[in-house]
Every structure is written in C-alpha cells, then in structure tokens.
Design goal:
Mean pLDDT: 86
Distance between the termini: 104 Å
Number of helices: 27
Helix content: 40-55%
Largest sheet: 7 strands, mixed
Strand content: 15-25%
Structural class: alpha/beta
Length: 828
C-alpha cells in the first residue's frame, strides 16, 4: 500500500535564518527585471538596433505589471540618449492646402515661435505707421500730382493745337467736344457758322476730325499712365515696407542662418507682406491685415525644450487620431473651417525619436488603429489625416499636411495568445515586430534566488511607499509566492500580485500601528483576499453540507467515487468535490460519456474518456473484443466539464461498477492517466485538496478522510495551515500514486493483482474479478446471440414452409384457370 505523505512534503516553508537583514529597508533598490534575463537581453537588443522592423512585442500575463517593468527599463535606457528635434507646421504660401513641416533642434521651436509672435506684433504697429507718415503721404501726393500733370499736358497739347486751327476744345459733363472759335475765346454761334463759306466749313470739319483722333490717342494713353502710377505707388510701398520689415526680418535671418527651413519661411513672409501691401494701406484689400499675419505663425506640434533624453510615451487609448494626430475645425458663419494652426500632434509625433508604448489589445480594439500603425511603420512617415480621409469615405476639401519623417521604436505589450494569433493571422506582423520579449512567469526558488527575491520585494515596497518587511514578513511573502506559482520549486514573477499583497499587508500593519510588516500581517492579507472572493465558495459548501449536492465522505459504495474539480471565477479559484458514478452491463465495448452526449463535456475531457476506454480494453481484453456497455456521469453537474484530471477517478469507478467492488467514500481522487495506466500530473491540486478538506471538516470531526493525487504533483503542494495541522494529527491524509492500481488499492482496500504471463489476474484480486465479470459479459452476449440465432432459424423455417404452401396453391390455381380460360377463349 502507498504511504501517506508527511507534512513536510506538502508545504515548503521559508526559514527566517535565510535572510541576513533585519528589515527590508536595509536592502538597496533593485532593477525589477532582475531574474528576467532573457527578456532583458531582448529589450537591450531591440532598443539598440536601428534597422527597420525591429520593433518590440513584450509577452506576459496581466499580473506581470508590464507597464511598470518596461517603463522603468525604457526610462533608464533613454536617459543617456539625445533629445529628439522639435516639430512644427507653417503655412505653405505656394500650396495652402499642404502645410510644410519644420524640423528644429530641441528648444529652438519654442524660441522661433516667440520670435515670430514678436515679429508680428512689431509689424502690426510698424507697417501702418510708415504708411501714415508725412513723408510717405508727401511722396505719394507727388506721384499722383506728377501723373495728373502728365495727363493734363496731353489734353492741353490737343487744346493748343485746336486753338491754333480756330477750333475750341470744350469740356462737358459727357466728356470733351470740339467747336469752331468765334471772337476771342468764345464759341462761334451756329448762325454765324452757317454763314461761313462752304470751303471754310469743310476745313473746320476736317480739322475737327484730325483733332478728335489726336484727342482719342491722348485719352488712350491715360490707362497706361494710370498703370505707371500704380507701379510707381507699388514701388513706393515696397520701398516703404522694406524700411519697416527689413531690420526685423534681417535680425531673424541672421539668428536662424543655419536652419534652411526657417530661412525659407522668413523669405516667404517677406514676399507675402510685399504681395499683400494693399492690405496695409488706406485703400485696403480683400484680405485684412490679421489674415495675412496669421499665416506667419509657427504651429509647434512637439516641443522638446524640457525633454531629457529620448521621450518615452505611453498611450492608453491608441485610436487612429490619438496615434497620428488630428486636424481640428472651427465654425464660421455656419461653415467648418480649418488651417495649418489647427493641426494637433498625436502620440507618434510626441514619441518621434524615442519610444512609444502601446497595449496591443487596445490597438486591436480601436477602429482602424492597427492598420494605421502598420501603415505608418511601413512608410516611415506620420501622415495626419482623419480616418474618413484615409479610407476615402469623404471627398470634402481639407488639409493634407506634409508627412513628418518617423524615427521611433514601438513597444507593444500583450498576452502570449495575442502574439501567437497575430503571428498566425497577420502576415505583416513579424515583418514589423521582429523582437520578442518574453517575460518569465516564475522564478526558481533556490537558495541563491532567495536574496534576489527579497531585493525585489523590498523594491516593490519602497516604490509603493510601504512599510518595510521584517524577516518573518519576507518569509511569509516568499511562501505565498510559491503558492501563487503552485510549485514548491518556483516563485511567482507576477509583480502585480506581489504588490497587491504588500499593500494589503501594509494596511493591516497600519491598523495595528506597527512599524514593520510581519508574518501575521501577510497572512491576514491573504486570508482577507480569500474571504472577499469566497462568497460563491461558501454557498457551494453550504449546498453540500445541507445535502442539496450529494457528496459522501463516509462509508463505501459500488460505482461511486469523489472526483475533484476546480471552479475559476475571475482571478479566484476554489476546489470542490464532485460525485462521479458509473454503470456497467454486457455490451459491445462502448463507454458512454454522458457529459459528452449531453454536450457538456469539452474536447479534452472527451479525449480522456477515450483513453481510459482503450486502457480498459487493453488491460482486461487484450486478445478479444471488450464486451462492455458502460456509462460515466458527473452527478449534479449542470455546467461544462473540461479537462482530464478526473480520468483516474473514472477508471476506478468503472472498475468498481464492473467488479461490484465498493469504494471507500472517505477518499477523493484527482489525476489523469495514459493508455498504460500511469498517473499523470494535473493542475489546481492545492485548491482541490483544500476544497475536499473544507467539505469534510464542515461535516464534523475528521475521521481519516484522504485525497489521492499524482506523485508528480507532490512538488506543487503548498497547502494551508489547517490542512497541515489535520495531517499532523492523522485525521486527514494525502496519498501520491504513480499507477492506477495504487489508487484502486487505496479505494478498495484490496490488492489489485498482477497479471501472469498469459495476462490472467488472480481470481480473488480486484483486477481478476473485473476480468471474470467481463468474461461473463462476453458469455452472456454469446448466449444471447445464440438464442437469437435459434429464434431466427425457427422464424426462417416457418417462413419457408409458408412460402412453399403459397407456391403450391399458386400452381393449382394456374392450371385450372389456364385450362378453363384457354378453352373458353378458344371456343369463342
């Protein structure tokens, strides 16, 4: 028989003597990536290589605290890197719908923005002042006066010539007209003109025709003179403007002589002022001065003046616009308007030249965000546009800012499942995220690692501003870390779970006015965590105690055993026993899984039933058909059943049902088997044992109840103190088995029996009785089949006699009828 496990085998304590400190405040702060050597090397590599596509994907479970781990690493890494440049947009005077970007050294963008604002303020007062000055007005008046004199001289020349020809040039409201001259400078009356000789009248009319042509030529030159005046005024305005803008622009051009983009923008500003000079004169123009000035400003998207090292940006809502920025609009007279000053930066702009950290689940859940991120990484440019523009869903006129060159490391954080799904379903994924950073779920619990783990716990407590732990508190924390890892040889590496535990322990220490966290505070925190999440567990235990859910923990029964299952609700899991029953009768070798037939069994459970049915056939009927019809059921189970951890219990209950051997109901069984009957490890053994223990204890005094589990699961045991105390008192036991025969021996109290060279088991052994019962099933089937064959032969004989009688009657009727019918036909 298998011996029960000792208390020391089901829990690995942590001796306080293993620590050299009194309280953890004596320990220095440690990098929290310590122990994650593979992940650290991957982070070092991924952040150092600058080739395209070597972005990073950090794999880990949610409890790792990936944001904190990766954030600390990137901040340390980026501290020694150069700050990235400033980025901004300016008005494109050549193509207003395509704003130009400016790349400036860090801090220069803020200075340029201030300088341009100061320039605009200066020009806003200086330009109107020069046009209102007396000097400008005098020069303008001189130009206009000189041009007026030239216009008058042209008319006067025609007037003088006409006077010499005896014709007057008269001004009328409708223009100019010619008339013959009388005495002095008066017009000749019409009566006198009619009295003139015909030759004189013809001369005057001919002269008037010539003068009209000359007058027309003089008048036709007027627009040209006006154009000359405008050019002269324009030249004057430009000359005056240069006196107002020359010095401020020259100062800026000298200050930013090394920045080609700034020089080009200042040149465009100079040209725009000259081009829109009418906006600043008294006559005015269609564009007001403020509209002209608004085009000079710098829209500073990213200001890295105060940035130390490369930026590390974490985006918690990675939507399309949050990544690439957006173009805002304002309402004017019921119309949406926009310009370059309404372009807003996205996370890619702010992280350009540094690191952008994204939660992959958030990127995948935001409409278009994943495709946007891939498109940006492929093109190496940040193109700011709306999602509607990107997919061609709208055709309205809008801005198309010049794309900004991209130089950023993307760090995705996500679960392993998402990583492998992306690898399988997105062919571009591995081209863009070539560096896999796989965090450890657990760390080895070795003597050397105890000091390391103590440093990690001390660092977590220090970062959260918690009380330090003493030796007992550290020992309790490490023991809890083993329980969270479900392994005596491992410690959980999920920092969030540890941090939560420490914060709760610190709370209970504060309630007791303690200066340090001790074992009692840690154990109090664990107990409270389990209590807060334990309502469903308590209701389940109550149903068992009241008999609503039938579980036997005393006596013996045939075809009935206690299996162990785990129920997971959120991040809390608890174990509870389940009654498994079986029936057996003669049949064709079929084991009916009622859970599968009812569509409550999962694929792994279905596989386990198939394995155990093959195990039974191979063991008890290796050379003949298995004559068995059996059924298995999880009683009072109305939800899904999944997993193979009940297959040992199912084999035992089937053996009990076949051999009619009672099983001890004080036992509960967990474990899976292979086709050779070997018992294999399963999960959740701590919860399963404690769940059965709670049921037994709730029914009164313990009387030797026990749990059977795989021997390979012993190193995973970290059982609570109540179970260990009951084991020490001998009232609760745990057995570890390697073969199903060992479990049968414990459950039946009898020797299972070993097969001889012919494969026959001893008759009185459990396996022998199974073999005998199966042979009886086979004989019953053969007998039933023989009886069926005899009955079928009698039925066939009777059917043959009946056919013969029917054939005889048919021949007699055929002759008589034929003779009579033939003779009749012939006679007629």
């Amino acid at each position: 028989m298998v011996e029960a496990l000792a208390v020391s085998e089901v829990y690995r304590g942590c001796p306080e003597e293993a620590f050299s400190f009194e309280v953890t405040s004596e320990l220095p702060t440690l990098d929290l990536l310590s122990g994650h050597d593979r992940a650290r090397e991957a982070l070092d590599f991924g952040t150092a290589i600058r080739s395209d596509g070597f972005n990073l994907f950090v794999l880990g479970q949610p409890g790792h605290g990936m944001h904190s781990l990766v954030g600390h690493f990137l901040k340390e890494r980026s501290r020694d890197e150069a700050p990235p440049p400033d980025w901004g947009y300016v008005y494109n005077f050549d193509a207003p719908s395509v704003p130009r970007y400016l790349q400036l050294p860090p801090g220069l963008g803020r200075q340029l923005r201030r300088d341009i604002e100061a320039l605009v303020d200066e020009l806003r007062g200086a330009i109107p002042a020069v046009f209102e000055s007396e000097e400008y007005q005098n020069r303008l008046q001189e130009l206009k006066q000189a041009m007026g004199e030239r216009q008058r001289d042209a008319i006067e020349a025609v007037r003088r010539e006409s006077r010499e020809q005896g014709v007057l040039l008269l001004s009328t409201p409708n223009g100019f007209t010619f008339a013959p001259a009388g005495d002095g400078d008066t017009m000749m009356p019409p009566e006198e003109y009619e009295k003139l000789p015909k030759e004189e009248r013809d001369r005057i009319e001919h002269t008037v025709e010539i003068l009209q042509r000359k007058l027309a030529q003089a008048i036709s030159r007027m627009p040209k003179l006006a154009k000359e005046l405008r050019e002269q005024v324009q030249q004057l305005n430009e000359e005056v403007l240069q006196t107002a803008i020359g010095a401020p622009l020259a100062e800026l051009e000298e200050r930013y002589a090394d920045e080609e983009g700034v020089i080009a923008h200042l040149a465009a500003i100079r040209e725009a002022i000259v081009q829109h000079v009418d906006s600043f004169t008294a006559d005015g123009a269609d564009i007001p001065p403020e509209a002209v000035f608004s085009r000079f400003h710098l829209n500073l998207l990213v200001d890295n003046a105060d940035t130390e090292g490369a930026p590390v940006i974490y985006l918690d809502l990675p939507g399309h616009q949050h990544l690439v920025g957006r173009i805002e609009h304002h309402v004017h007279n019921g119309t949406l308007l926009t310009d370059f000053s309404l372009i807003r930066a996205g996370a890619l702009h702010r992280a350009n030249g540094g690191y952008l950290v994204l939660d992959v689940r958030g990127v995948l859940s935001q409409p278009g965000a994943w495709e946007t991120l891939k498109r940006v990484l492929r093109s190496g440019q940040i193109r700011t546009e709306s999602l509607e523009q990107a997919y061609g869903l709208i055709s309205t006129v809008s801005l198309e800012p010049q794309p900004i060159p991209l130089d950023v490391k993307i760090v995705l954080l996500g679960e392993r499942l998402l990583y492998y799904l992306l690898c399988e379903h997105d062919p571009e994924f591995l081209e863009l995220f070539k560096v896999q950073v796989d965090l450890e779920d657990e760390l080895p619990r070795s003597e050397a690692n105890l000091a390391l783990y103590a440093h990690i716990v001390a660092t977590l407590a220090r970062e959260a501003a918690l009380r330090p732990l003493d030796r007992s508190g550290m020992a309790a924390t490490i023991e809890r870390a083993s329980r969270l890892a479900d392994d005596q040889q491992r410690l959980t590496a999920r920092h969030r779970d540890l941090s939560d535990l420490l914060q709760e322990a610190d709370h209970w220490a504060a309630m007791q006015d303690a200066t340090v966290i001790t074992r009692a505070h840690v154990e109090k925190a664990v107990a409270q965590q389990l209590y807060r999440a334990g309502r469903i567990r308590e209701r389940s235990l109550e149903q068992i105690n009241r008999g609503t859910v039938m579980i036997a923990t005393e006596g013996q029964a045939v075809g009935q055993v206690n299996g162990l299952s785990v129920l997971a609700l959120g991040d809390f899991a608890f174990g509870q026993p389940t009654r498994i029953t079986a029936t057996a009768r003669p049949g064709t070798g079929q084991v009916v899984d009622i859970e599968r037939e009812a569509r409550l069994g999962g694929r792994i459970h279905t596989k386990a039933v198939m394995i155990l049915s093959r195990f039974l056939a191979g063991r008890y009927a290796p050379d003949a058909p298995l004559s068995l019809s059996a059924s298995l059921a999880f009683e009072q189970s109305y939800g899904g059943i999944e997993g193979d951890s009940a297959s040992v219990a199912e084999v035992c209950v089937l053996v009990s049902a076949i051999a009619r051997v009672p099983l001890d109901q004080r036992f509960a069984v967990t474990g899976s088997i292979n086709q050779h009957g070997e018992v294999q490890a399963v999960g959740g053994v701590n919860e399963k044992i404690e769940g059965f223990f709670d049921v037994c204890r709730a029914r009164g005094k313990l009387s030797g109840q026990a749990v059977i589990l795989p021997a390979s699961n012993v190193e995973h045991l970290m059982l609570k103190a109540e179970v260990r105390e009951a084991m020490a008192a001998g009232s609760f036991r745990i057995f570890a088995v390697r073969h199903v025969d060992e479990a049968l021996a414990l459950l039946t109290g009898e020797a299972p029996g070993e097969p001889d060279e012919r494969g026959r088991f001893p008759e009185q052994s459990v396996n022998g009785r199974v073999q005998a019962r199966l042979e009886a099933f086979a004989e019953a089937i053969r007998a039933a089949r023989g009886a069926d064959e005899k009955d079928q032969a009698k039925i066939d004989e009777k059917a043959g006699d009946q056919r013969q009688r029917e054939e005889g009657d048919g021949d007699h009727k055929g002759e008589g009828g034929g003779d009579y019918k033939g003779e009749g036909d012939g006679d007629e």
